Amino acid sequence: MTTSKGHYYLGLQQATALSNSGLTLRRTCNAIAKVIAKSMGMTGCRVLLLNPKNEYLTTVGSFGLSDLYLRKGPLDARKSLPEVLEGEIAIVSHAPSDERVQHPEVAESQHVVTIIASPIIRGSDVIGQVRVYSRQERSLSDLDQEFLRAIGNLCAVVLDKAELSQFKERVKRNCAKAPRQVLPAHVPSTPLKPTEFAHESEAEFAHLLDFYQIEWLYEPRSFPLAWNGDGISQMFTPDFYLPELDMYVELTTMKQDLITSKNRKVRKLREMYPDINVRLLTRKDFARLLAKYGYGPLGEAKVAGVGRVLFSQTQIKRKVRSLARRISKDYVGQRIVMIGVLKGVMCFMSDLMQQISLPVKTDYMDISHYGGDGDIVKITRDLDCSIAGKHVLMVEDIVDTGMTLNYLLTHLESHRPASLRVCSLLDRKQRRLANVKLDYVGFEIADEFVVGYGLDYHGEYRNLPFIGTLQEEKGD
Ligand code: IMP
Ligand code: MG
């Protein structure tokens, strides 16, 4: 398979447009990966980011690779084609038998024969790689190499842009709006992933976001809050920025008296910078978030049983019927594939599908959760059928942080369905940390853990016919 200059010109043109499209980092990289694979006549591609210590590579965007391939998790940068760390382009002509390939058995089962890896270089540092995969033998021409070098430069700019450009823009906007003529807010250049955190909880939070592949930046921006003559006398630097949600997150897991002063600062920040979306995550909030995964200080909390009934069996029935009616109307004349996420969704999905008056197919997926095995979320049960060109309705019991759904949607999108919508029985908006659009929602709920109608606490309570809260055990 050879590729002409014209192909590459078109590819670069598309990739350049994508780099300037305003899509999120992951979506940009997914789309660029597709352009690269198509331009080179290859089966798949991924854009990988190297951690600052040059130890491992994580996927920021991919195209055409089976889940099994992506599921391998981060790659060991020193074992897998290490010459790329030195800035070289590497080619593997027979992946199943090449010792530089970290998982030859996966390559074999996926019929991957050729792998080409090319560095992404910022200044003089290798910060990532572009890898392309083919099921045929493939040589590497000068033209291929020129294309890969050009794409590598573009990817470096895309990664840079994700890091900085949004902040610069906001600084400009906020300077115009600031209550006084002030110095521009401080925008330090930050590494994409710092290795040092001020507190353990920050590292834990970053770990959680990494697990679900949610992009984040650490302390990317400081907001001046008070001035003294020409100088800034008070400043606030939120811990995290999540570009996908355009949200700053401040973790307050320290002493209670410090929380009061932090609260005051956050309030001031909201007053002075009303466009800035900042969220305070207290120690309790954070513990609750981890507890959901059976983890952290609240993970093992004892409960006495069910507290209040939030939604009765009748209320649920009525809601399910009305959701099904809307869905049947929206998809009229079409066939849909309903995909449920195990296990919480079982009651809702089975009731919902019975009320839908269209031809329906069902399938189920499951993914690993934080606090279990592995550093990165994995699909533990994949689809049985192909969804390419199909109308897919993803069904969820509850969307909380949105991280599960966000991951699954990215995965499903890569299978190119004709359409992809989401129906969730419950929506707990306040805790959202990933940007997911819900097309059909049953009930919005407050920040309270719920059980019943499929939802569990440590595996129990799924069989309750209603949805209720849990009663904490007295004395705890
Ligand atoms: P997310 O990734 O944070 O949106 O979490 C989604 C998953 O966490 C859901 O599919 C549930 O399995 C589980 N979950 C979240 N909140 C609750 C709850 O209040 N009760 C039971 N399970 C929950
Ligand atoms: Mg679930």
Topology:
Layout: H1 5-19, H2 25-40, E1 44-50, E2 56-63, H3 67-70, E3 75-76, E4 90-92, H4 104-109, E5 114-122, E6 125-134, H5 142-177, H6 200-211, E7 217-218, E8 223-228, E9 231-236, E10 240-242, E11 247-252, H7 256-272, E12 278-282, H8 283-291, E13 303-311, H9 313-330, E14 336-341, H10 346-354, E15 360-367, E16 379-381, E17 391-399, H11 403-413, E18 419-427, E19 440-444, E20 450-451, E21 467-472
Parallel strand pairs: 11-12, 14-15, 14-17, 17-18, 18-19
Antiparallel strand pairs: 1-2, 1-6, 2-3, 4-5, 5-6, 7-10, 8-9, 10-11, 13-21, 15-16, 20-21
Helix pairs in contact: 1-2, 1-5, 2-5, 9-10
Structure description:
There is one protein chain. Strand 8 and strand 9 form a beta hairpin. Helices cover 32% and strands 26% of the residues. The chain starts with a helix and ends with a strand. It has eleven helices and 21 strands. By secondary structure, the protein is an alpha+beta fold. The model is unreliable at 177-193 (pLDDT under 50). The protein has a six-stranded antiparallel sheet with strand order 3-2-1-6-5-4. It has a six-stranded mixed sheet with strand order 16-15-14-17-18-19, with helices on both faces. Strands 7-10-11-12 form a four-stranded mixed sheet. The chain has helices at 5-19, 25-40, 67-70, 104-109, 142-177, 200-211, 256-272, 283-291, 313-330, 346-354, 403-413; strands at residues 44-50, 56-63, 75-76, 90-92, 114-122, 125-134, 217-218, 223-228, 231-236, 240-242, 247-252, 278-282, 303-311, 336-341, 360-367, 379-381, 391-399, 419-427, 440-444, 450-451, 467-472. It folds into three domains: 5-166, 2-Layer Sandwich (Beta-Lactamase); 197-303, Endonuclease, Chain A, CATH 3.40.960; 311-470, Rossmann fold (3-Layer(aba) Sandwich). Bound molecules: inosinic acid and magnesium ion.
